[in-house]
Amino acid sequence: MEISEITFLSGVYAPLICAVLAFAFSKITGELAVKSVAFFGFAAALASSVLTAFFYAENGALEVSSAFGLMGVNGVSLAMYLLAGIVGFAAFLWTIASPVKIKGISTYLVCMLFMQGGLMGMFASQNILWMYAFHEFALVPTFIAMCVWGGENRKPAAMEMAIYLTLGALLVLLGIISISFISTKTLTFNLRELTDAFASANVGAKSAGTAFAVLSVGIGALVSLFPLHSWAPKTYNEAPTAFSMLHAGVLKKFGLYLLIQVAVPLLGANAGLSMSVITVLALLNVILIGLCTMAQNDFKMMVSYSSVSHMGLCFLGIASMGVLGAGGAVMIMFGHGLSVAALFIFAEIIKSRFSTCDMPSLGGAYKNMPVCAGLFVAVILANIGLPGFANFWGEISVFAALWSKGAVVCALAVSGIIISAVYGLRAVANIFFGAQSCAVKKAGNCDISWKERAPVLILLLALILIGFAPKLITVPLDETLGGVPAYNLTDK
């Protein structure tokens, strides 16, 4: 096995091995040993994702056999694998730096490591059943963390999440089995074998369309597509910060990833009606859920709703059925994953400093924490899609793809920028500008510390890097998506 293959696989294996070691150490040693082991696990995932990106730039797609079947990355999975590595490491740094003391931090870190291993494996697997299994494996720590370390309303939120995601996951599993059966009549889940089988087999349009519809409903529940979205804002608001970062930033992208990587390439030719329905529902995510986001006074709840709203643009990009739209969706997924993770960090900072996230109760915090204010504004602008950040390239690509399909749909989608600008800049104004509130005056000088800045800076630098050098992601995306017939039917 070559060094590049070992480096790549370490991104999956290292967090899982470190989770087991950290669990063992938590029984016989102190927190320091557990934190050290956890640091190695998350750092290994980050290093694996970055080095794999360098390898891809030099050599192209990577494939390697493992205990979990064939694993590897193409242009689509590379972006998501990199996202998982960056957000995971930032979430770990924030857990160590958090001003809120976490009871049982050793167990907390074990849950995070298991989740990180699932996230990395989810995007590294070339077997769609293993993709699904890694996704479910990563969900379990989220549920545990919510029930143990979540907010006041954690139990009902956790139960609602479990119901929606369990039913959604069952439909996704049924869709995955259907994909395998209708193409080969045998249960094979290797993505390359399935691609070859669909290319050579005479698959019935009705069977393929039904499989896509079933898969789409399940994915809609996982990704919070309207009207299957109600679980997501409550979950992110009640979950511990690190798990909100990992779930909203990375895990939630699985359904979209499955659509781009599996469903459209294999079933896209028969997805016409389903894509029309997805387009309508995605516009409701962008507009209706965007308006709900504007109505939120609690900052963390605002961030939670905004995460749901942004998923609508991703669905619209995929529904355009072209290389430009699908590539734009991946770029939005990447940029949004970074920016929303940073916003959840700011939510905890605000709550810890002022004992509330109620924005109308705040104001004038700029004088107390100027560095935090500057970083906050930068992340808000990234989340809106300002040029210079990764999110911009994804949004402009999706809008360009939608324009070629119709001016009305494009105009409705673009309204999402106006809505996100309103609630984003409103948050800036309410929290940091205007007259100082009593809560802000009482807090005194409370700027963000260096250890608190570290995870934010990592996320922000990644947003800026891709914002100024988007080809690092778009070139691999074009190479991969350009070779998929389903994405070239309407681009010609």
Description:
- The protein has one domain.
- It is 77% helix and 2% strand.
- It contains 20 helices and 2 strands.
- The chain has helices at residues 3-28, 31-59, 75-97, 105-124, 128-149, 154-184, 191-200, 205-223, 231-238, 241-249, 254-267, 272-294, 299-319, 323-354, 370-384, 390-403, 407-432, 438-443, 450-468, 471-481, and strands at 62-66, 69-73.
- A hairpin with a 2-residue loop joins strand 1 (62-66) and strand 2.
- The chain is globular and about 70 Å long.
- The mean pLDDT is 89.
Taken in chain order, the helices and strands follow as HHEEHHHHHHHHHHHHHHHHHH
Instruction: Name the shape in a single word.
Output: globular
Biggest sheet descriptor: 2 strands, antiparallel
Question: Strand sequence of the main sheet, in spatial order?
Answer: 1-2
In angstroms, what is the radius of gyration?
Answer: 21 Å
Give me the count of strands: 2
**Proportion of helical residues:** over 70%
State which percent range the strand residues make up.
under 5%
> What class, by secondary structure content?
mainly alpha
What's the overall average pLDDT, rounded?
A: 89
Number of domains: 1
> In DSSP terms, counting alpha (H) and pi (I) runs of 4 or more, how many helices?
20
Please mark out the parts with pLDDT under 50 across 5 or more consecutive residues, or reply none.
Answer: none
Subcellular location: Endomembrane system; Membrane
InterPro entries: NADH_Q_OxRdtase_chainM/4, NADH_UbQ_OxRdtase, ND/Mrp_TM
Pfam family, one: Proton_antipo_M
Membrane topology: Multi-pass membrane protein
